Each structure stands twice: as structure tokens, then as C-alpha cells.
Amino acid sequence: MSKGNTFENDLLDLIFNAAAIANIADNAAASPLTNLFVALHTSDPGEAGDQTASEATYTSYGRATVARTTGGWDAAVGGSTSPAANIDFAQATGGSETATHFSIGVAVSGASKILYSGTVTPNIAVSDGVTPRLTTATTITED
Prior knowledge:
Elements: H1 5-17, E1 35-41, E2 64-67, E3 80-81, E4 87-88, E5 97-105, E6 114-126, E7 133-134, E8 140-141
Antiparallel strand pairs: 1-2, 1-5, 3-8, 4-7, 5-6
């Protein structure tokens, strides 16, 4: 069963911009999440996985923090959203691996639930001195 196009945008705006969906959902919890956390993966973490599944391990790696605002994510259009600015991860100071996927979750570390995941295109070959980056061309889509 599919969602209506307007609701797809509303849902993305609720999750990524903390924007209420009138008469359905709001962001009025006692302490609503103000950031989302983006992880890199060396293979697909899968729908049953959490953010630790095949998560990057290069030296100095950490999840990137992105605000749940229009400063962090573009307003949804056509059932998709993108980062408002490039998402840079810590520069590698050791280790070597290839980032093939990314995920968006709710915690800066640990077995955080995955809200969305996708393929990194092109893949990022990470080695000493490389700063992995997801560009504003990265899209999160409801369709």
C-alpha cells in the first residue's frame, strides 16, 4: 500500500525537520530529538540491522550529527529530502575500508535503530588522510 504524495513529504518533514503534521503528529515530546545521526557502513546494514551493523571502523571514525531542522535537511519535495549541506565525517587517521552505505538513526553511538539507509554513490575508499563526505546530492526517499 502506498502513501499519498503530500503525506510522504509531511512524514519526511516530521522526521527530518521536526515539523508537525496537522491533526496527526507533532514534535511536542518532553525532550524531542534535536539531531539525527548519520553512519557509514561497509555493506548494507539491512532492514533488520541497527546502526552498528557493518558500521565503518577506520581510526577516528564517528557518526555525523545533523540537526533536525531545515538548516540540517532540505524541506521534502517529491517524496524526498537531502542534506542541506555536505555531511563530513572525521578524517581517517588509520585503517582502510570502503563505505558503500549510509544510515540515519537516533543515537550518536551504539545499536541505534535505523530510520533510513541507502547506498553511497560513488562508494568512498577510506584510508589515512581521507575525509569521507556525503554530498547534498544524497537523497532520502519515501517512494
